[in-house]
Amino acid sequence: MGEAQCGKIKEAIGLLAFEGEPISWNRYGSGHINDTFRLICKTGEGEKHYIIQRINHEVFKDPVSLMRNIAGVTSFLRERIQAQGGDPARETLNIVKAKNGKDYCQDSDGNYWRGYLFIDGATTYDKVRQPEDFYRSGKAFGRFKRLLAEYPADELAETIPNFHNTPVRMETFKAAVKADSCGRAHLVEAEIKFALDREKEAAIAMDMLKEGRLPLCVTHNDTKLNNIMIDDVTGEALCVIDLDTIMPGLSIFDFGDSIRFGANTAEEDEPDVSKVSLSLPLFETYTRGYLEGCKGSLTTEEKMMLPMGAKLMTFECGVRFLTDFLQGDTYFHTSRENHNLDRARTQFALVADMEKKWEEMAEIVRESKK
């Protein structure tokens, strides 16, 4: 850790209302966007543990609105958890306010920092160790959706505008094809056709939202396993974390992104698409957990659209990867030649496999909701 960065952390620690005397801080977690540290403070009764983070305001252009979102949602969650006899200190994030009363502070360089209570006795996992982990993940995100069912989603700011607006993503993609700024379009004619053949279907969710057939709700928008804290003793999913992308959206988006990432038999960037398929057992496992966590908070149409959510999120992600490939790999980090193209092909292969297994997916949802 550089001397300048160390100085900024010290400055931020002094601006936030941590209890006790700071004695150490070290990098924490596997996140790549924000700078995250675990802070230990000495108190008269022992130690207090905290998380302190520098918010990446290059990615999140409006940190003030972002923190307003998080403060509103976590306050609402604490009330709901407490009313149900839970432990709000462990089952949701708890913001440590700045000494001036705000939910964040700024250092002398203009960087935004925030603090959270550290949740002891719990761990996050980057990969599914066993199917039960995926079930618990689904249950946790379903419960998250249920607890926030009455939160006024339209009051939330869009931290990333049009993040899951698939028709807008398609327009960006078509513009990239037309511009062909890197001369790569001739290399991916099959992939371009695959995307364009499904353009009409890409608008179905947003059309249903406009028609009032799917309700606007609070969405997490990054529903991976490693955003769930698992209790070290009970093994149960404890708390949903990483709330930076909390936004108004559709429940099927959160469900679908979990399936896209967790029920694929291959890695997201697997070059050999013959290894790519949808695991129906994992799809069933997650669906069962998600619907159990939701406990009736989904409408009938939301439930029936869960398979479409999985397909749409996978398709949209493939379109984004392909767009970035056409534009010269300027958005997603790449570590090899054609990395984004491999990613796009993997997503499209998964979409194609979902189409083959569509009736089985629909039947799993029907049976799981009984």
From TrEMBL:
Coiled coil: none annotated. Residues 26-263 form the Aminoglycoside phosphotransferase domain. This is Mucin desulfatase. It comes from Lacrimispora celerecrescens.
